[in-house]
Structures are given as C-alpha cells and as structure tokens.
Amino acid sequence: MYRSHTCGELRIADKGKKVTLAGWVQKSRKLGGMTFIDLRDRYGITQLVVEADAAPELVEKAASLGREFVIQVEGEVLERESKNPKMPTGDIEIKVLNINILNVSTVPPFTIEEVSDGGEDLRAKYRYLDLRRPPLQRALALRHRLAQEIRTYLDGEGFMEIETPYLIKSTPEGARDFVVPSRMNPGTFYALPQSPQTFKQLLMVAGYDRYFQIVRCFRDEDLRADRQPEFTQIDCEMSFVEQDDVLNTFEGMMRQMFKNALGVDIPNPLPRMSWYDAMDKYGSDKPDVRFGMEIHEVTPLVQGCGFSVFDDSRYVGAIAVPGCAEYTRKHLDELTEWVKRPQVGAKGLVYVKLNADGSIKSSVDKFYSPEQLKAVADACGAATGDLLLVLCGEKRKTQTRLGVLRIEMGNRLGLRDPKVFAPLWIVDFPLLEWSDEDGRFYAMHHPFTAPKPEHEKWFYSDKKEDLERVCANAYDFVLNGTELGGGSIRIHNADMQKRMFEVLGIGPEEAEYKFGFIINAFKFGAPPHGGLAFGFDRVCALFGGQETIRDYIAFPKNNQGRDVMIDSPSKIDQVQMDELFLASTVKE
Ligand code: ASP
C-alpha cells in the first residue's frame, strides 16, 4: 500500500494515528535542527517534520530532498504548535519516522504553487508541471463535476449518448475545415467535424429521439482568448419537440449544473429576450444583463438643431453611465480615442455631463440648449451625476459600438462581478443575413435551421425585404455577455430544405455534393426535430469565474494554434507526404 491517506485528508481528529503518505515535495526548509517539508498531491498539502533528534540517516535523507521529488513517508499525526488556519490540514503535521524516495526530479523550471513565477510560454511547454498547480487542478475538477452533472441529468431525461465520426465531410457551421488526407483514396480528403450537426439530424431520422454527446469539434479559425481550434461541445438533439420543449429541457440542465456545482439558484423560468430587443437595448446578441446602462435611441430628439453630424445620421443612440459626470477632459479624450480604435470603429464620441450642481455640460453645447440636452438625458433615464455617451451612424453598427462601449464602462465601474450569474435565452433571430459584399444571403445559424412557422409566408417570397423579415426558430443561451450555446428547430422537410439552399444561393449540384446524404434521408420520414449545442469549455470557464477557457482544458493550444509541449503542428517526412500524395508549396 503506497498510502493510507491523501495529502489533503488528515485533521486534528486523526491525532496520534500512524499514517503513510505519498506525494511531491513542494518545498522543504530547515529551522533549527528540524526539517519541514510540504508534501503535495491533488488533494492538498500536508506538512511533514523531521525532528532534530531523529536518526541521523533520516535527517540526512530529508536534507537531500529536492523540489518535486516523489516520496513516501511513514509517520505519526501530531497537533501543530503554530497552526495555519488557511490550510485545511493546518492543525496537524506528520512526525516523519521513515522516508522512501520513490523518484527524484530535475529542478522544475518554475514554482509549482498556487501562484507560479513561470511565464505563460514556459508553463505551456511544461504543461504537465503546470497541471500540478492547485488552480488548474480545481479547474479540471470543476470540468469533471460539470460533465458528470450533464450526463446524470440527460440520462435521467431519457437521452442516449451516441458517438459520431471524426473523419467526415464538411459540416455547415461556416468556419474553415481542418482536413485529413486519405491514403487509401488518393487525392481525397476527410474534413474534421465543425460539429456533429448532420449526424445528429440523421440520428433523429433513425429514430433515436433524444441524443447527446460531449464531443470534440474542430474549426480552423483565428484564435482568441475564448477560442481553441479543437473545443468541446455538449451536443444535443430531440425529436417531436417545439422550441419550448428544447428550452425547458436545457435550462433544466443548466439549473441543475448551477445548483449542484456552484450552489447557485438561477431563475425558473429563465428570461427570454428577442434578438431585436437585445440589439436595440444592449447592442449585442449576447447581452450582459448583470447591469443596466441600456442603449436608448435619441435620433428624433437631436436632429434638426443644426448639428450636421447627427442630422446626417440614420441613427443616434446613447447610454447613461452612472456617476461618471466627474470625468475630466483627459478621461473623455481618452475615451474618445478608445471608441475610435479599429476594434470599436466609431468616428467620434459626444458626451453630456449631468453635473452634481444641476448644470449640464456637453461637447455639443453650441448646438443644443440645456433644456434640449435634458430631454435627451431624460429619454435615457439618466440622473444627476451621470455621463451620457452618444454615438451615431448606421443603426445596427452604432448599436454594436454602443454595446462595446457599454461593456467597457461596465468593466471600468466594476459592474461585471464573475460571481454573479445572469443567464437568459435570446430568441427570434433573423433567419438570414444579407452580405452587401457578396450580394447574397447567409444563414445566420446554419442552413438546417427552420423559419418560425408564422414567417414561412415570407420565406417563400422572392422579395429581399420579405426574406429579411423572416425570424428563425433559433435560440442562444447567453450568460454574462458570453454565448454559451445555441441551436434551432430544424427543417425536416425536403422541399423546405431545397428552398433554403435556393435562398442561400447554393445550387442543386452544390447542395447535392455537400449535403445530398441528408437531403436524401429527409425523404424517408424525417420526424420534426430540433436541438442545440453548448460550448463546454466556455461553460466551465464561466462557472469557474474566468474569461479564458485555456485553464479548463488539460492540453490546450496557444494563440498560434500550437501545442508547444509536443511541438505540433510539425513537418512530416517525405515518405509520409508521398504516401498521402501530397506536395508542399512552402518555400524553405
Ligand atoms: N451545430 C450547431 C453549432 O455548432 C448547434 C446546433 O444547432 O445544434 O453551433
């Protein structure tokens, strides 16, 4: 037996027990003649003490231990003289009677403690050492807990976990595919799934009316803090359901996850907001509703007063930032520069200060009387002491910019507490998105999403305005400004699917080539069905109160999509290239 207890287990009630522990030496220090050792495993840290009057061999062995040596110790649980209330095991220590060195260790390249002195790149290279640190162990433990909650809940609801293949054909999520050359079929390629979308729909045709899978998906996209080229989805599909059935089922799952993993009660039912309201009020289809500061349109109030910038704009909108009327000129100049950054894209910023003394000061005082500005402030629900920030331009673009500004001000004012959770559903998305550049419609979700039944009449119209009005029978689950998941009720009828491809400018041949198998399957009694997928890595990160998903993935990639630990991607040798009928055009 290597150990009788873990390093996080012993308490004062165990005083006097003879125990055997095994773990890693986090650090050791000499104090007088005594040696103190912090022994760590994934359960915690226990202090070991080798007393001054212990056998000389034992004292010598203790002195020889380096950081990250793996040892086994036998000893007795003692009450500590100076207790450490910060550690769960802080009331006790182990008087060491014997040390067995199980393995030595090279000096690790960074400290393996709660907070490490290692930089990000170094820790990525030695990920297996970083993973020994408590924050990462807590992150992976949370991920494990949530995965168990998901499986328990969905199993209880009659869902079957079914695996789908990774070597497939392009899927309809609209990102770039990762491809795998086929040796046995020269000149042809598999695509890795961007999601199991088509397979889960085929499972519905096959009669497996409640499917789920915690599954890896692959998208060759530019990376950001919350994106990885391979990521995990909680992928689900149900037959004989309407939107309400899907939303009720999965908010139930989320409710159970919040309750059992975090002890948090979320509202029942969850709020639902239409995409149009989300855009109008929050300038985002993933609104953070933990704080107000909503966007208000003020176009009619500001036009016709001689300020041509507003007069020439289709839309003028504002947010009232609480308590910021004290912003100095310097602050406002800095904020103006901030909104002009390419990531935000505004041309300028107009401000109105509602000073504490009741006076009003703005950057457009030349054009507006205090009464007119007061009317604008009232329309935005602003109070004395608030700062109005006003942007103008094309409607949706301006709303989006105001949305970005709102989040920034929310961050600056500390209104985005990661321990506060405000989940909601966004519903009634437009089905189609027009691209001026390409002169065609794109599916806002994916081409298998059904229009809302009451909008079908517009779906079959040839007029662009009609098609733009069609709402999708789609929904997103949003938490604290992040989209955690989304899905839709699907088209299950071959004719409607054909019409969808036509609207998207996908000709019959292309449709047949890409999706012939699913169009064909729909001819054999496809049931009404719908589903959704959650981004599991993001779910874990937000539950853990973090923005980046990397800590919640055991072996993530860096911003260049590289795994620097195993040094991948990397070149393959010529023999392998030849076998795969590949030639490289990269110049050495
Ligand atoms: N396959 C979709 C996605 O990955 C989710 C769904 O519609 O179920 O976004």
Q: How are the SSEs placed, and which strands pair?
A:
Blueprint: E1 18-31, E2 34-41, E3 44-50, H1 56-63, E4 70-79, E5 92-103, H2 120-125, H3 127-130, H4 134-156, E6 160-161, E7 179-181, E8 189-191, H5 197-205, E9 210-218, E10 230-239, H6 243-262, E11 272-274, H7 275-282, E12 296-297, H8 299-302, H9 308-311, E13 315-321, H10 329-340, E14 350-354, E15 360-362, H11 370-379, E16 387-393, H12 395-412, E17 423-427, E18 432-435, E19 440-443, H13 456-459, H14 464-469, E20 474-479, E21 482-489, H15 494-503, H16 508-521, E22 529-535, H17 536-543, H18 574-579
Parallel strand pairs: 3-5, 6-9, 11-17
Antiparallel strand pairs: 1-2, 1-4, 2-3, 4-5, 7-8, 9-10, 10-22, 12-13, 13-16, 14-15, 14-16, 17-20, 18-19, 20-21, 21-22
Helix pairs in contact: 4-6, 4-17, 7-12, 15-16
The protein binds aspartic acid.
What would your notes on this structure say?
By secondary structure, the protein is an alpha+beta fold. It has three domains: 12-103, Nucleic acid-binding proteins (OB fold (Dihydrolipoamide Acetyltransferase, E2P)); 119-272 and 473-492 and 527-588, 2-Layer Sandwich (BirA Bifunctional Protein, domain 2); 291-412, GAD-like domain (Gyrase A, domain 2), CATH 3.30.1360.30. It contains 18 helices and 22 strands. The protein has helices spanning 56-63, 120-125, 127-130, 134-156, 197-205, 243-262, 275-282, 299-302, 308-311, 329-340, 370-379, 395-412, 456-459, 464-469, 494-503, 508-521, 536-543, 574-579; strands at 18-31, 34-41, 44-50, 70-79, 92-103, 160-161, 179-181, 189-191, 210-218, 230-239, 272-274, 296-297, 315-321, 350-354, 360-362, 387-393, 423-427, 432-435, 440-443, 474-479, 482-489, 529-535. The protein has an eight-stranded mixed sheet with strand order 6-9-10-22-21-20-17-11, with helices on both faces. The longest helix has 23 residues, at 134-156. The radius of gyration is 30 Å and the shape is globular. The protein starts with 17 loop residues before the first strand and ends in a 9-residue tail after the last helix. The structure holds aspartic acid.
